[in-house]
Amino acid sequence: MTDKKDFADNIRQKLEDWDYQLDRLTARLGDKREEWRSEAKQKIAEIQDRRDELEAKLEKLESHGEDAWDDIKAGVELAWDGLKTGLLAARSEFEDRD
């Protein structure tokens, strides 16, 4: 049980960190040109969808027993990778634009 709890706690902490990063990115959009803001808002909405998907998988992980945790863990890790990749790509793409 400890492994599952530790894993879930670790993912929750990462989600909090990424929520902060996403908020920072969103706040910086005001400094960008309108065409880039529109594109960035769309990408941020996609990232938020991935974040919500990860949250749902994490809740499923926490509510299921040990027997299902390996399968659910793989889904959580996959969702985390998608969220991480999406946010890093958006941040690098839009933070450097004037």
How is the topology of this model organized?
Layout (H helix, E strand, L loop, with lengths): L1 H27 L5 H30 L2 H30 L3
Helix pairs in contact: 1-2, 1-3, 2-3
Could you give a short description of this structure?
With 98 residues, this protein is mostly helical.
Walk me through what this model shows:
There is one protein chain. By secondary structure, the protein is an all-alpha fold. The longest helix is centred in the middle third of the chain and has 30 residues, at 34-63. It is built from three helices and no strands. The chain has helices at residues 2-28, 34-63, 66-95.
Q: What is the succession of H and E elements? A: HHH
Average pLDDT rating? 80
Unreliable stretches covering 5 or more consecutive residues: none
* Secondary structural class: mainly alpha
- Based on DSSP secondary structure assignment, what is the total number of beta strands? 0
SS strand fraction: under 5%
Query: Between the first and last Cα atoms, what is the distance in angstroms?
Result: 49 Å
Tell me, what's the shape? elongated
Instruction: Count helical runs.
Output: 3
Main beta sheet: strand number and arrangement? none
Rg from C-alpha positions?
16 Å
Helix content: over 70%
Please supply descriptive tags for the structure shown above.
98 residues
